[in-house]
Amino acid sequence: MKSEPILRVDGPDWPRQELFSFFSQIDHPFYTVSLRLDVTKLYAFVKAHGLSFYHTLVYFCTRSLNTVENFRYTIRGGGVYLLPRREPSFTHLKKGSDLFRIITLPCGDSLEAFCRAAAEKAASQTSFLDQGEETDDLVYFSCLPWFDLTCCTNERNMDVDDAIPRICWGKFVERGGRRELGLSIEVNHRLIDGVHIGRFYEALQQQLNSLL
To answer: Mind listing the pLDDT tens digit for each residue in 37-75?
Structure first.
């Protein structure tokens, strides 16, 4: 299968060119936003369908993120390109172990197929990381289910061209009869502003609210 072409978008007529140039002068153009997500319907849905809460939320986050164009921007050789989509790369802590692995696979169009493939790969992968899968079209996920997360930063090489979003969430908590969790997202301000995070959040919450 041929890979889908990506489109170069930067140039004099690119609406974001001035903002991109401004934040390109900053040594550390990354920032983090934390938000509260209502997962009441998500929790009921995964229980009713026998699905993984973690894998299901990775799936819906990826699908929601891909609806916002700015999240699909990447920087290659100083140019800005629009990816067809981003794919999930997420941590997996095997039961009974303190050592996690990083699992990467396509999101696809079927939640059930994704959850099945994610579980199979998590069970079969023996290496910490498959370096051949480390591309710039990913979105990194992690989960800290032991406490209510309020914020999270991420390790990184100081590469200002790093355009990979990082998403992490913690333990869900009961609030007024609803289940909520804290979700943290770290992005590159050269490409993504608060309005784009807002659109991602709205798309994600809408998808979760529509679950039956």
So the answer is: 999 999 999 999 999 999 999 999 999 999 999 999 999
pLDDT, one tens digit per residue, over 86-127 is: 999 999 998 888 999 999 999 999 999 999 999 999 999 999
pLDDT beyond 50 at 159? yes
Alpha-carbon dihedral sign for residues 79, 84, 89, 90: positive
Closest CA to 162 of 67, 6, 27, 16: 27
Q: How many C-beta neighbours within 10 Å does residue 191 have?
A: 22
Bridging pattern class, strands 7-8 and 138-144:
unpaired
- Torsions phi, psi for 22 (to 5 deg): -65, -50
In the predicted model, what is the mean pLDDT of the chain?
A: 95
Contact 158, 37 (CB under 8 A): no
Q: Where are the alpha helices (DSSP H) in the chain?
A: 17-23, 40-49, 53-65, 111-124, 194-209
How is residue 147 written in tokens? 């406490």
pTM: 0.95
Angle subtended by helix axes 40-49 and 194-209, to nearest 10: 50
135: tokens are: 């591309």
Report whether 183 contacts 149 (CB < 8 A).
Answer: yes
